[in-house]
Amino acid sequence: MHFKKNFFFFVLLFSISVFAQKNFILKQVILEAPSLSPATLNQLQWIPGTDEFSYLEETESGINLVAEQIEAGNKKILTTLDDLNNSLAYAALDSATNFPRFSWHSSGEIWFWQKNKLVLFNIQKNKLFVLNEITEGGGNHDFIVPEKIAYTIDNNLFIADNSNQIKVTNDENSSIVNGKSVHRVEFGITKGTFWSPNSNYLAFYSKDETMVTDYPLVDVTQKPATLINNKSP
Questions:
Q1: Is 125 left (phi over 0), alpha (psi -120 to 50) or beta?
Q2: 199-218 pLDDT, tens per residue?
Q3: Where are the domains of the chain?
Q4: Phi/psi of residue 207, each to 5°?
Q5: Contacts of 179 (CB under 8 A, 6+ apart)
Q6: Do 68 and 78 meet the contact criterion of CB atoms below 8 Å apart?
Q7: Does pTM top 0.85 for this prediction?
Q8: Cis bond before residue 48 (omega within 30° of 0)
Q9: 53, 65 contact by CB (below 8 A)
């Protein structure tokens, strides 16, 4: 008897949920597809030390960084792209055409890359600080503390120590690759540098591909298309 009651309760709940769903005709699905898609929040992140989350909101007046509380749902503007560009101009840095990809450093500070400079922006005071700088063209940057940043240029590894550039490897053979992920980002390997907890030591991958055949690939994003030699998997 108890089983029958539970089964009837489950069937009742399922029936209510089915009837609560809205049915769409084929014309609506085809012509109104964008409006039926779930909303996406650009750069959705938790704000550390709070019960709020942040995201970017594009309005007619510009791009805003806004925050909302989990329960209350009250939305407030933290800063705008215009405010950020004013601070960049005051620090003699190039302006941003779009809000940069950032991470929260604290509940009132974000940091991001502005070209080759790691920048800290205090939202409450509208003040901006350059924390470190790498050589232009550097990529794969990795750090725990901003004073020491590992990065790569071509196949060699560098460290920016308070904007002083230290060359860790000096391999002229492009088939020897340092500081990058190996096995084409497989087996859970997503990067090629690993700092110790206190940033006193740096471990890194050094991959010898001298015996691997070059495989020609065509880059169709260039005009005219160019040929790029890549190592065969």
A1: alpha
A2: 999 999 999 999 999 889 99
A3: 37-132, 134-233
A4: -110, 125
A5: 140, 150, 151, 152, 156, 157, 168, 169, 192, 193, 204, 205
A6: no
A7: no
A8: no
A9: no
